[in-house]
Specification:
mainly alpha, 21 helices, about 600 residues, about 0% strand
């Protein structure tokens, strides 16, 4: 199969979906109003509620949701063949993921910028709000733990990425200060910052620091056994564990700091820079495919799966999470993006359009791992990498990085620089997602603290500390971080469950408003079926093996079933003509001016 054909077919489908399907939804379902005054204007505070140019906001939203997940998921899922992965990425993005993101952003903006968890109280009931908030907390816990481990592994495998990543932070702070404290616009400073980032990447091939092993872990019995009794190899593995733990702790401290800063100072400027970087990366990979046209060596549908590989049905639909639909996107859309929406009509570009970019990233991940990586490793090397599900899971990101290096080299970029470039892309997006994820965890802890009148949890700094401490326990609690990617299937299941629950809330609102609710109801039912099946499968795999993951999964599963029972009552009420009870009463009938008066 030609990689060019897959690239053109996928991108053409995304463009068609945005031009036609999203326009229909904007006009006839969500009914966007250019005169509706958004929460960013009504509650502007300069910290969380900040009216933001739609292109800047697109950058924030896009890079917040486009973490490592749309890269890792497809890189693992191609073990089942490129065709199922390709179809789920393309069709899932257009008809499920983009509708979900767009809807969460619209509903939140129409209701004072409230998060989807809080909105659940008005749509379903007060108990449902608590249940959903707990599910969201578990999801964010796994998101941040997985990404912290991924970043740590990439720093260890690609030390050339360390210098450019950390130099990008003060550069982004400078851009934020220039944009919001001087007359400078956003475009020129962010482009200059992007150029500086590529200078840092070039320097990164010469400056490659590595973190010392501060912890001095002794080799575990499993490591000694895996090393076939070789104490030297076992000690080296233990040292890697110690370095990984150090990077995880550093990233958690960074997440704690970044999540408490005003969004305009670091989050927005770095996200805008990263959005430029992502478009450059997509351009480099796409151009590399067009110039080199490496063949797709993976089978269309694999009929010789490794012994430890589960069947692709339903695991494909939770392994490729953010590349097709992601509950995390709804948390970002309703948690931070809706508070920065300048005009309601911008929601189509930011919400639906942002998911088109996410799908594009998943598409090039498929091409980089099935075509570019095959050129790098050779057919036998590719088959060896995908010889087990564990190997595919642990090495998915590195397969992507190596594949991008080959494609970039095909258009004249030195291979070493191209590999650092690819690693920086993945780390930048993963770190951005961590920023947003920790900030959202803080919101949830504060909400729960307020609901149950627990005073310490209502303090923003204390809530952030609780959040990162919980992430650290999960990230380092599975084989000292070495088993961090074991969280991925459970993360994917919980992530898709959250997406289904978000679609459920939107569906009930559309049903109450007597609008076309099928656009959200169909993907909602599909996801509920797949996630429930996958969750039962995961619980069976972890029982008696990984008690921490079994406990997390069992808790989420119970919360899911309880919330579904609560939702049944809300659906019945909506069918009888009783709408949501406590949504913003002004959302459908009053348009505010920018002063907040009627």
């Amino acid at each position: 199969m030609s990689s060019i054909v897959l690239l053109i077919a996928g991108l053409s489908a995304f463009v068609t979906g945005y031009l036609l399907y999203s326009r229909y939804i904007a006009r006839h379902v969500y009914r966007l109003d250019p005169d509706f005054v958004t929460p960013a204007h009504r509650f502007e505070d300069g910290v969380d509620y900040v009216p933001t140019n739609k292109h800047v906001l697109f950058g924030h939203h896009f890079t917040s949701v486009a973490g490592a997940a749309p890269i890792v998921g497809p890189a693992i899922a191609v073990i089942w063949g490129w065709l199922p992965a390709f179809l789920w990425v393309v069709l899932g993005t257009i008809f499920a993921g983009a509708v979900h993101d767009f809807g969460a952003l619209w509903l939140s903006a129409r209701n004072r910028g409230q998060s989807i968890g809080t909105l659940t109280q008005g749509v379903i009931g007060s108990r449902a709000r608590t249940l959903f908030l707990l599910i969201i907390f578990f999801l964010l816990l796994m998101v941040n733990a997985v990404f912290a481990v991924i970043i740590a592994n990439l720093f260890i495998a690609n030390p050339g990425a360390i210098f450019p990543i950390w130099m990008a932070m003060p550069t982004a702070l400078a851009v934020g200060l220039l944009v919001y404290r001087t007359p400078a616009g956003i475009l020129v400073p962010s482009v200059v910052a992007l150029v500086l980032l590529y200078v840092y990447i070039w320097i990164g091939q010469y400056i490659q620091p590595q973190l010392p092993d501060f912890f001095g872990f002794a080799p575990s019995a499993a490591q000694i056994q895996a090393a076939a009794g070789d104490p030297v190899a076992a000690a080296a593995a233990a040292t890697t564990d110690g370095i990984r733990a150090g990077w995880v702790i550093i990233m958690l401290l960074y997440g704690l700091l970044a999540s408490t800063l005003p969004v305009w100072l670091l989050l927005q400027p770095r996200d805008y820079i990263n959005s430029h970087q992502l478009f450059v990366a997509l351009g480099v990979i796409g151009l590399g495919v067009l110039v080199t046209n490496p063949p797709v060596v993976a089978p269309a549908i694999s009929d010789h799966l490794p012994a430890d590989a589960p069947g692709w049905f339903p695991l494909l639909f939770i392994t490729i999470a953010c590349g097709a639909i992601s509950g995390f996107h709804g948390l970002v859309a309703s948690g931070t993006t809706s508070k920065q929406l300048d005009r309601e009509t911008d929601a189509r570009f930011v919400g639906y359009g942002g998911m088109m970019g996410e799908g594009s990233l998943a598409l090039v991940s498929i091409l980089a791992t099935t075509a570019g990586f095959a050129v790098y490793a050779g057919l036998e090397g590719w088959q060896a990498h995908y010889s087990s599900f564990a190997s595919a899971s642990a090495g998915g990101v590195n397969a992507f990085v190596s594949g991008v290096g080959v494609l970039a080299e095909g258009i004249g970029i030195p291979h070493d620089v191209a590999v650092i470039f690819a690693a920086v892309v993945v780390i930048s997006f993963a770190a951005t997602t961590m920023d947003t994820g920790v900030r959202l965890q803080r919101y949830i802890i504060e909400e729960l603290g307020s609901q149950y009148r627990i005073q310490p949890l209502q303090n923003g700094l204390f809530a952030s500390i609780v959040a990162v401490a919980a992430v650290g326990v999960l990230a380092l609690g599975i084989d000292r971080g070495a088993g961090g990617m074991r969280i991925w299937p459970l993360f994917g299941t919980t992530n898709q469950l959250t997406g289904a629950l978000t679609l459920l809330v939107i569906t009930i609102v559309l049903l109450s408003l007597k609008r076309n609710f099928w656009i959200t109801a169909v993907p909602m039912v599909f996801l509920f079926f797949m996630t429930t099946w996958a969750m039962i499968d995961q619980l069976g795999r972890h029982f008696g093996n990984q008690w921490m993951l079994f406990g997390f999964g069992a808790a989420v599963f119970v919360l899911e079933l309880w919330l579904i029972l609560e939702a049944v009552t809300a659906v019945r009420r909506a069918l009888k003509g009783g709408g949501p009870t406590s949504l913003d009463p002004d959302a459908e009938k009053v348009v505010y001016d920018v002063t907040g008066t009627r």
